[in-house]
Every structure is written in C-alpha cells, then in structure tokens.
UniProtKB/TrEMBL annotation:
It holds the Pfam family SBP_bac_5. SUPFAM superfamilies: Periplasmic binding protein-like II (SSF53850). This is ABC transporter substrate-binding protein. The keyword Glycosyltransferase does not apply. Residues 83-411 form the Solute-binding protein family domain. InterPro entries: Peptide/Ni-bd, SBP_5, SBP_5_dom, TAT_signal. Keywords: Signal. CDD domains: PBP2_NikA_DppA_OppA_like_17.
C-alpha cells in the first residue's frame, strides 16, 4: 500500500494541472520558451519481462507513465488532487446523484477512429469483468453497468448503485483508461494519448512518437523513449553521462549532492507521499485514547523530516492530504514530552513495551521507526522496532500487531476515507470503525452542495485528528532529475495528471 523506491505504485494510489515550469535548483534552467523537436530519453525502474503495455494492468511507475503518454482517462487528478476533465468535456449528475451524464470531447484514437461513448462503456466493462483483476475495478464498482447507456456517440449516461457526489473521483481512478471497443491485444497498443506507439523491448525500452492529432494539442517532442535503469545510481549516472535527459525517482541524498551543480536540475513534487505510523484502535494498548494522544505528542516531526527525508518534505499534522482539496488546516501539533508522560501514566502504560512493525517495503520506513523509537525514550513507554518481511508486510500489518509503519501516495481525501476509515473499508489498517463517522461520510457523498461536503470532510478530519489512529508525521517530496536543457517538467504530486507527463516537456 505504498509508493516505494523500487518502482511500484502499490495498492494505495488512486498515482493535475499545475504550473508547467519545473521547480529546479542548481543548474541553469532550460529556456522558458517552449521549443519543438527532438527525442527525450527518460530513465525509470522497470519490471523485466513482466512489464506490460495494457493500461488496465499497469502497476509499475514506468507502466503508469507510458500509459499516460499513450492513453487518456475521462478525468484525472489536479494539483490539489481534485478531479479535472480530460476525455470528458463535462459531467452532470441528476438531482439524486444516481445518474451521471458525461459529454466526451472530440478526440480520436491513433488509428483515426473517433473516441465514442461505446468505447467508454466497453473499457469500463473490461475493467469490471468479474473474472479479471484490474486496479480500477474497486473504484468503478459503484457503476450499474447494465443500466448505463450510450445516449449518442459523444454522450454516456452512467447509472450508479447508490447516490454518489464524488463520482468524478472514480473517473480519475488509477488505471481507468479508455481503450477502443474490443481491444485486447496490446502488442501494438492504440490509445488516444499525446504519443503513439513505435516499438517495445520488454525490460529495456519503449519508443513513442508525437501524435499530431492529440485533442489537447500535439506534444512538443518528436519522440519519447522510456529506458530501464533499475538502480537509482544507474539512473543518476545515465543522466550525468548523457545517456538520458530525465531520471525518475531520485533519493534526497542525490538531490542534495547535485543541488548546486551544473550537470542536472533537480525537480521536486511536494506532498507526493505521506509518511506515518498506524495505531490499531480496536485493541490494546491503542484502544486507549490517552495513549494514542501520547504518541502524537512524542513525535518530533521536524526531526523526522530532516533525518529520514533529508529535508525533502514537509511536516505532517496527523491528517492525510496536506494541500489537497477539502484538507482541514488545523493548528499544527507539536512535540510535548511532559504531557505525553502524563498521558502514559494516566493510561496505566508506564513501563509498557510496544512493538512497532516496519520493513523495507517502502523507502524510509525502517529509518523513521528507529528515529521515533529514540524520540520515545524517557517517556515511560518503550518502542521496540521489529522488521518484517517486505513482500508480505502490507497484508501482515493490515491484520496483525498494534503499531506499524505506513506510507501512501496521492489520492483524493474522499478516496482515502472510503478505502481506509469506514467500518467496511478493505484497507482499514487502524481498524477505525465508528457508525457516526460512516454516517458523516455518507452525508458528504450524497449531497450536491460543495460547501456542505467540505464541511462534512473537515468535521471527519477534526475527529480523526483528535481520536484517530494515524500519526502522519511528514509528506515526502518526489524527486526527479533532468538535464539543464529540459523545460516544462511539472511539480505536481506523484500519481496526479502532471506527474511524469511529457507532452508539455521540451528540449532547449
């Protein structure tokens, strides 16, 4: 359930429209005037022979970036992680939010066929096939597909199984790409995206070319090549050596080393991944609210950000989605050792040893657990760090233990709540289950009043901040490196529209 440094998007991603100028440091920036032409080579970690070009099966970062280049969704997530229209020109619900009418843009697939309502319905039917496992299935499951219809070639009417004001979030779900009706063979993929397919060598490279008929305007680049370099050091060296112009997923250490040099420009995407500890509120010892508050007060968040993220991040406030749509901007919680000690005594937990489960399943988790255990010294509570199997970590900690490391990528706050904090949520690692909280969520998603929804989400967040089980201590930057002559790299959070988006990039 994480964004991790080995290239997987994990299970939490939902993976924006923000300024296109990169937020670089160090090297001289590319010309601010966009230019056309050239081939950009982008280095990503890969998956060898297991890599796919089927956008509904994409799981690796490189697969997600390639899917984005070749295919479109009806919507995608903006810089504040709110849904933005893409192939959908607009969406309109009926009065009770059970039917949504989608008007499609005038767009064409790479083979010249128009993108039609029938293609949309066929794409979603493929994703929802009960005999197949596609990532977007859970997000689209609220669609009543047999009762949905194509009104005409550019109008789709979706029937839903229940009222749902946040249906555009589902349209923007990770992997919910629109493909031609009947498409099953992706050896020669055909999409409607900014780049069209040229060639594929699994585990090595994919070459794409400009789509001059792209609905949002032809890309500036002539060609885009994704090349595989699994180790971060290999991606860095390929960039420094001139074998590539873009290197995805660099470490804070690399960023610091080259921040003041002239051989690469560092681009940071803030608020891309939350770092946290998860307390299970349904069992001892964290069924005690005082003890949960004590842990909140033991955390020295600035120290965690500096030591674990090497300063490449922002302090968290125990809530998901800093800077995202509907985020509750509450007073920042600070370390207070004296109050934490008082609450530990009040909870009868003095002398208690608590195991903190962690693993290398996501970068920085073991280091964060070690730092936090050190911060708890002298409080009367001992935190014992236990490192588990990285391959089974997320499944293990979903069920077992009482305190664990947690990490998540960007998604709408509504999706975070739906997936992790309702009584029936499938990835509810904190075991938070409150009927009144569930009712507040249902109130939010069943009203068309935007301000009423925001108020409901903020009330839910106030409850979570006071009583919840997530100690969200920081938000990590996502870091990429590029040659100084590359312009147009976005600073959008990872997993959003403008992350790893190349149709607006140019070579100076």
């Amino acid at each position: 359930m994480s964004l991790n440094r080995r290239g997987f998007l994990g299970l939490t991603s939902g993976l924006a429209v923000v300024t296109l100028a990169g937020c670089g440091s160090g090297a001289t920036s590319a010309s601010s005037t966009p230019r056309t032409g050239g081939r950009l080579r982008a280095a990503f970690a890969g998956g060898g022979a297991k890599e796919v070009l089927d956008p509904h099966l994409a799981n690796l970062f490189v697969e997600a970036a390639r899917s984005k280049a070749m295919f479109d969704k009806l919507a995608d997530l903006g810089g504040d992680v709110s849904p933005q229209p893409r192939l959908a020109e607009k969406w309109e619900p009926n009065a009770d939010l059970t039917r949504w009418r989608i008007t499609l843009r005038k767009a064409v697939f790479h083979d010249g066929r128009p993108v039609r309502a029938q293609d949309v319905l066929a794409s979603y039917a493929r994703i929802l096939d009960p005999n197949r496992a596609f990532r977007a299935k859970s997000s689209l499951a609220l669609i009543d597909l047999p009762n949905s219809r194509a009104v005409d070639d550019r109008t789709v009417e979706f029937a839903l199984k229940r009222p749902f004001a946040e249906f555009p979030n589902a349209l923007a779900a990770f992997g919910a790409y629109i493909v031609p009706e009947g498409a099953e063979d992706y050896t020669l993929p055909v999409g409607s995206g900014a780049f069209s397919f040229v060639s594929f060598e699994p585990g090595r490279s994919v070459l794409l070319k400009r789509n001059p008929e792209y609905w949002e305007g032809a890309p500036l680049l002539d060609e885009l090549e994704f090349v595989i370099a699994n180790e971060e050091s290999a991606r860095t060296n390929a960039l420094l050596g001139g074998q590539v112009e873009y290197a995805h997923d660099l470490t804070p250490t690399t960023a610091r080393s080259h921040a003041s040099g002239d051989r690469m420009t560092i681009h940071r995407a803030p608020n891309s991944a939350v770092q946290a500890f998860a307390m299970k509120v349904d069992r001892a010892p964290f069924d005690n609210r005082d003890l949960r508050e004590a842990l909140f007060l033991l955390a020295d968040r600035p120290q965690l950000v500096e030591s674990v993220l090497a300063g490449s991040g922002q302090v968290g406030n125990d809530l998901f989605g800093k800077g995202y749509q509907h985020y509750a901007d509450l007073p920042q919680r600070e370390r207070d050792l004296d109050k934490a000690k008082f609450l530990i005594r009040k909870a009868g937990a003095e002398g208690l040893v608590v195991k903190l489960d962690t693993s290398t399943a996501a970068a920085g988790m073991v280091e964060a657990a070690t730092v936090f255990a050190d911060q708890a010294k002298g409080s009367g509570l001992t935190i014992e760090v236990v490192q588990g199997n990285k391959d089974s970590y997320w499944a293990d900690t979903l069920k077992n233990g009482s305190l664990s490391s947690f990490r998540s990528g960007a998604m709408p706050i509504e999706t975070h709540i739906a997936q992790r904090l309702l009584s029936g949520s499938g990835t509810n690692v904190t075991k938070w289950a409150r009927p009144e909280f569930d009712a507040l969520y249902e109130k939010a998603v069943s009203t068309s009043d935007q301000s009423a929804r925001t108020q409901a989400y903020q009330e839910m967040q106030r409850v979570l901040h006071t009583e919840g089980g997530y100690l969200m201590w920081g938000f990590a930057d996502w870091i990429v490196g590029a040659k100084p002559n590359v312009g147009g790299i976005s600073t959008a959070p990872a997993n959003t529209l403008d992350w790893a988006r190349f149709d607006k990039v140019w070579l100076g």
